Amino acid sequence: MLRNIDETTAFAMPTEKKEDQYLDGELLSRMARGGAAELRTNAEEVNHLNVFPVPDGDTGDNMCMTIESGVAALDKLEENASLQETAAVLSRGMLLGARGNSGVILSQFIAGMAKGLSNCEKANARIVGRALTEGVQQAYASVMTPTEGTILTVAREAVEYANARLQDNSTVNSYFHDLVTEMYRSLQRTPQILAVLREAGVVDSGGAGLFYIIDGFNRALNGEEIEMAELPAAGRAAATVDFSAFGPDSEMTYGYCTEFLLQLQTSKVADIEHFDMQEIIPYLESLGDSLVAFKTDSIVKVHVHTKTPEKVLEHCRRFGEFLTVKIENMSVQHSEQTVKEEPTEQADRFAAAAPVVQKKCAVVAVCNGEGMENLFREFGADAIVNGGQTQNPSTNDFLDAFATVSAEHIFVFPNNSNILMAARQAAELYDKATVHVVESRDVGAGYVALSAADFTVEDVNEILDCIASAMAGVTTGFVSPSIRDAELNGVTIHTGDYIGFVGKEMIASCPERADTARKLLDHMLASGEKYMLTVFCGKDADSAEAELLQGTLEKQYPNLEVYFVDGGQEIYPYIFAAE
After folding, report:
1. Distance of CA 276 to CAs 281, 282, 333, 426, Å?
2. pLDDT of residue 49
3. Does residue 346 have a pLDDT over 90?
4. Helix (H, G, I), strand (E, B) or coil at 86
5. Which side of the chain, N or C, has fewer Cβ within a 10 Å radius?
6. Which helix (H) or strand (E) holds 237?
């Protein structure tokens, strides 16, 4: 299930350390770093707690990047920051860096905790308990249909247990001892609640990630020095600059993609809580386009395309000081994209330059693989967010994508069930357009829905109804190598086999990939109701094998329209979309 832990000793209270009566900002910061370090150490173990034995487990990585975004934000805090300031900064960093459903739930859990610690210079055990209760409530509220036996249950049961044991002499140490002890026990119970976990022989991966974070909190609280692994750079690695793309005689055509986080300062703003963003927005609109600007507590986030970034920075510094600043020459990015005929690593993975004239509807789609990206663009995607299995984009990635399109309504196709919550969280934060997050839980559903949608229709609800109707008729199947032995849905799986599944139903497992593909297709097409099949060939697909598969389909299903597409996607050699 998890590493071998003897809870009688692992969670024992140290006898030599003086117990903390209060949690303050410095202590919370140290605990958050401990939680991030402990999870980073065990991230691969959490990744492998996957119901399906597919090499796409990314819960550990998603939760790591989420909490590490919060820890990175803490680096900007001044010394002796109060508890409420520390909690708020940690929460904001995690909110923008949240990836995957477990990462979003984690960010909401910490956001609720931060709300419960507002107006607190420091907090005793009872206040901490109330704050974590608020965290549990906010985490549950963030999920449209909460499922027990998941990270939600682990958080709730642990907090309820620790709160029930609170006494007048309770300390922060005794509270977190109770919290992490029960969290471990609750995690071990998750297979008893969720049959799919029991069948797969694993505990809930999100719950495991939360356990390691709180275990790190507890260890740091008790004075343990947790070796901090080197954190990955926030976001993607910096791209190498092509100096030939913009020379002495080049003309600045596209301007600069300018982004920053601004900490409002009491010395410059009389009332930070009621700061009016109209102090910033109209002026920045006069300097550029693709503007997104919003305020969260005392932090302002700005993204704008402008030819005069110095004026943007000068104006905004009237109200505070910068936490982060990023300025990129979009003419260089556009030149690189033209030469390479592929998206650049950063802003040009969306569009080379956002349109100046606002249109009614725009589409943002998530996918990976050059062929898949080209296909989604061909069917009308205005911006592509690179992502999918093992590459879940963050809330901030979606906000960046929204900023590159100019439309009254933005339709988002997450195309992965583990990306939906980050897309929804971004939609709630974005106020420059009405954002509609489509419930496309896989790339097959998103592809068919986008190809069927008519965005010239005046009634937005009619567009959404058309999308929902198109997705309802799609069955998507996946072929993938197996990374461990398992028994699922009565299918015996051996490490190294190729497995085929639809949704959460395991269909086939064979040593040969072609055999698995044929069995999966026979299952998907058995009803005789499907009239069209799209086969997305991944980067690991074999062309000769695909030709044989196409021939088999033509003979066995003569009335079926079959299209083979070079998707270039990771993880899955074949994705089948039957409609």
Report:
1. 9, 11, 34, 21
2. 85
3. no
4. helix
5. N
6. none
Task: Give Cα separations from 206 to 53, 185, 231, 485 (angstroms).
Answer: 16, 15, 20, 21
Strands (E), 186-312: 256-264, 288-296, 299-306
| Cβ neighbours, 10 Å, residue 136 | 20
Give the tens place of pLDDT for each residue, 522-540: 999 998 899 999 999 998 8
SS (H, E, C) 293-356: EEEECCEEEEEEEECCHHHHHHHHCCCEEEEEEEEEEHHHHHHHHHHHCCCCCCHHHCCCCCCC
CB 530 within 8 Å of CB 475? yes
* pLDDT-derived band at 6, boundaries 50, 70, 90: low
Backbone angles phi, psi at 568, to 5 degrees: 70, 15
**Interatomic CA distance for residues 65 and 59, integer angstroms:** 10
Average of per-residue pLDDT across 290-305: 77
**122-123 and 299-306: which strand pairing?**
unpaired
Instruction: Note whether 493 and 478 are within 8 A (CB).
Output: no
- Structural domains of the chain, ranges and CATH numbers in brackets: 7-221 (1.25.40.340), 252-330 (3.30.70), 475-578 (3.30.1180)
Q: Between helices 25-41 and 205-221, what is the axis angle to 10°?
A: 130
Q: Which residue has the tokens 């596209």?
A: 254
The closest alpha carbon to 370, from 394, 337, 400, belongs to 337
| ∠ Cα 382 354 312 (to 5°) | 145
**pLDDT higher than 90, residue 79:** no
Report H helices in 222-299. Answer: 281-287
For residues 340 and 280, which has the higher predicted lDDT (pLDDT)?
280
pLDDT at residue 16, as a whole number: 52
In whole angstroms, give the CA distance from residue 530 to residue 511. 28
Q: Which of 177-186, 289-298, 554-563 has the highest mean pLDDT?
A: 177-186
State the DSSP H helix or E strand holding residue 267, giving kind and residue range, or none if neither: none
For the segment 198-210, the average pLDDT, to the nearest whole number, is 91
Taking residue 7's Cβ as centre, other Cβ atoms within 10 Å add up to 13
pLDDT of residue 369: 87
The DSSP element (H or E) to which 112 belongs, if any, is: helix 100-116
Strands (E), 414-542: 434-437, 475-481, 486-488, 491-493, 498-502, 505-510, 532-537
Residue where the block lists tokens 């269909």:
507
pLDDT above 90 (res 200)? no
Alpha carbon distance 575, 477 (integer Å)? 6
Give yes or no for a contact between 179 and 218, defined as CB atoms under 8 angstroms apart: yes
Q: Is the pLDDT of residue 232 over 80?
A: no
Cα distance between residue 94 and residue 71, in whole Å: 8
Pairing of strands 561-566, 532-537: parallel
